[in-house]
Specification:
By secondary structure, the chain is an alpha+beta fold. Helix content is 36%, strand content 17%. It has a 5-stranded antiparallel β-sheet with strand order 1-2-3-5-4, covered by helices on one side. 18% of the residues are buried. Bound molecules: adenosine monophosphate.
Length: 146
């Protein structure tokens, strides 16, 4: 019951829930039973599209395998159309999970961002590991998984 209530409130409270229920306008480009895709209102580049599940999940930390698979199926299906609609050469497919990682809307979404040329903007500034740091972090991840 608590979970149902949480889900209901959560759907009410995100803009993407409102788009799913057609309470907010959006440029919808694709829809199936489990997913919806529409243009991002503040595009990183023209054609920037968001793919969301219709099910209310917050992000990668609570999504179930089936829902994520449905989202990724849609990402795969529409990426060529997004790319070709703006004459792009490639796309970024990325996603933010929790505020520290840049998540602003707390309904899982994948960004498909068309890329016309390589150096037009920087998405991921690169860093390097100090010695032994990579070994140490990899060991910690393996331990968490075991
Ligand atoms: P994120 O920072 O990964 O949570 O991304 C949220 C994205 O949702 C941003 O790129 C916003 O521009 C986009 N966004 C917010 N509100 C709307 C809306 N009403 N319609 C379309 N995109 C939206």
């Amino acid at each position: 019951m608590a979970l149902l209530r949480y889900r209901f409130l959560y759907m009410e409270d995100t803009v993407f829930g409102k788009i799913i229920r057609r309470e907010l306008p959006a440029e919808i480009v694709y829809e199936d039973e489990e997913t919806l895709a529409f243009l991002d209102i503040e595009p990183v580049s023209p054609g920037h599209t968001l793919v969301i599940p219709k099910k209310a999940v917050r992000n990668i930390f609570d999504v179930d395998d089936e829902t994520l698979a449905a989202v990724m199926r849609t990402v795969r299906k529409i990426s060529p159309a997004v790319r070709d609609s703006v004459g792009a050469k490639g796309v970024h497919v990325n996603s933010n999970h929790e505020p520290e990682a840049g998540q602003v809307v707390f309904h899982l979404h994948m960004h498909i961002i068309p890329r016309m040329e390589r150096n037009a903007f920087e998405v991921w500034p690169k860093t390097t590991y100090a010695s032994e740091e990579a070994k140490d972090i990899a060991a910690r991840i393996r331990k968490e998984l075991s």
